[in-house]
Amino acid sequence: MSTNINKLRDPDLPEDEQDAIIGSFVRRHENERLRKRWEDILSTEHGVSKRAPADKRKAVIRRIGFVIAAIAASLLIFLTVIPNLGQQGGEELLAAYVTELNVDNTRAGGNTDEQVLRRRVADAYAAEDFPAAVAAAETLHQAPAATPEDELTLGKAYLRNGNYEQAGQTLRRLIGRATDYSTEARYALGLSLLQAGKKAEAIAELQRIAEADGASVYEKAQRLIEEFQ
Amino acid sequence: MSALSLPQSFPISLVQNSQADKNFGLSEAEYSRLAHSLGQGDHRLFERVFLSHYKECQHYLMAKDGVSYEEAYDLTMDTLLRFRDLIVAGKISYGNLRYLFTRMARQAYVRSRKKTDPLTCLTGACIKLSEEEPQLSREDYDLLSRSFNSLGKDCRTLLRAFYYLQRSLKEIATEEERSPAAVRKQKSRCVATLRRYFYQIS
After folding, report:
1. If you average pLDDT over residues B96-119, what whole number do you get?
2. CB contact under 8 A, A27 and B85
3. What residues of chain B lie within 8 A of the CB of A27, using their CB?
């Protein structure tokens, strides 16, 4: 709704219109005061503030790079794994699925200790240096600002490094906390259990992934169930 | 978990286990206390609960919608201010505050992309996420701010209580042990003075 502020000069301005203009102003005035107060509290007590524009540009470039890498990885999987589904043995197929597990590294920008560690995990993981990825992910997981995504990364690093017991423990803990990463954690747990030879448990976990949890992960889980059941 | 012992980092998710988890760690009684204190202009409990979840909400928007850090920061702030308004207006009930808050934040993002003004529904009740407000230009807003700050403390307090804390003149009169007519007259005088100051400086 647009208004003409000059109406405030009209002595015959109806009370409801006057209330609308003054009310709008007072609400905005008070919200701006509150916004400033909260920005101060966030900055001083919670360490949350706006980033410099330069960081924003880097984030966009990193995101574009991530999207391109994800598309390339998906194409690779499509061209190599799917045509051979019926021909490969279980172990080969499983190895292919485990290799397909990547860490997202969506929060790896910036220069805090945690962000540096996230980059280190992602770099080691991408280089397939899984002992180094595990070491960095364990340190990151102990950090005060560690997130559920970091815990998922740790679980995947354990899995790729062959530490199935630790992978299982980490992923189960994450699933139990009902975060946004539960489905991905459950899928990784299924792979970990398959790798550890616990087929029945693995199938049970994979069967708990519903279509509503995400079409992509659901389809991958169904494919594994069909292959190993 | 009590709101008074909330951890600094608490994941925002659409799937939560307990009733308290669904409500940012608040019990129903604590939420009532929070809503009451907001209505009195006391933001401390609201700030303690919601600002400690700010970073999580910001990252949630970044992860779900690919929003930039800075835009997610602003959207979360806008949502927080709107959430406060709705609590004060009694339009939000205890139930699943976490879901409603994240939904509002994501819809604020959609709205910022100039899509339709959405409604969000929770347990059958729909809440309009934005009200149409008269739009003031930055210049007019600054002039009115100067005029408002020139008012006496009593006038500023009364106008804040009426327009911002959404209390009726009758409620204000009862609390101040005055007649509603006297409060209504005082409000008229305050608005007239504000308009006069605005006219003089513009």
Report:
1. 76
2. yes
3. 85, 133, 163-164
Say how far residue A203 (Cα) sits from the centre of its chain.
24
Domain of B89 in residue numbering reads as 3-128
Given an 8 Å threshold on Cβ–Cβ distance, is B198 in contact with A8?
A: yes
Span B50-84, pLDDT tens digits: 898 888 888 888 888 888 888 899 999 999 999 99
Q: For residue A49, give the chain B residue with the closest CA.
A: B73
Which of the listed residues B128, B151, B185 is the one where a domain comes to its end? Answer: B128
Tally of CB atoms within 10 A around B59? 22
Number of A–B residue contacts, CB under 8 Å = 120
pLDDT at position A85 over 50: no
Query: Considering only alpha carbons, which residue of chain A is nearest residue B79?
Result: A35
* Interface touch B9/A147, C-beta < 8 Å: yes
Residue B128 DSSP label: E
Disruptive mutation site among A16, A105, A180, A184 for chain B (greatest number of B CBs within 10 Å): A180
**Length of chain B counted residue by residue:** 202
Kindly tell me if the per-residue pLDDT of A68 is higher than 50: yes
Give me the sign of the Cα torsion angle B34, B88, A42, A181: positive
CB contact under 8 A, A46 and B81: no
Instruction: List pLDDT tens digits, range A101-135.
Output: 777 655 555 667 888 888 888 888 877 888 999 99
pLDDT tens profile A150-187: 899 999 999 988 899 999 999 999 998 877 788 889 99
Q: Do both B166 and B187 map to the same domain?
A: yes
Q: Measured between CB atoms, which of B8, B13, B134 is closest to A178?
A: B13
Structural domain A89-228, CATH architecture: Alpha Horseshoe (1.25)
Q: Cα B56–A219–B15 angle (5° rounding)?
A: 30
Please name which of B34, B14, B6 lies closest in space to residue B102, comparing C-alpha atoms: B14
**In Å, how far is A178's CA from the nearest CA of chain B?**
6
ipTM: 0.79
pTM: 0.51
Among A25, A50, A148, beta carbon nearest to B136? A25
What is the per-residue DSSP string for B11-54? ---S--SSHHHHTTT--HHHHHHHHHHHHTT--HHHHHHHGGGH
Residue of B nearest to A36 (CA): B77
Q: Is residue B102 part of a domain?
A: yes
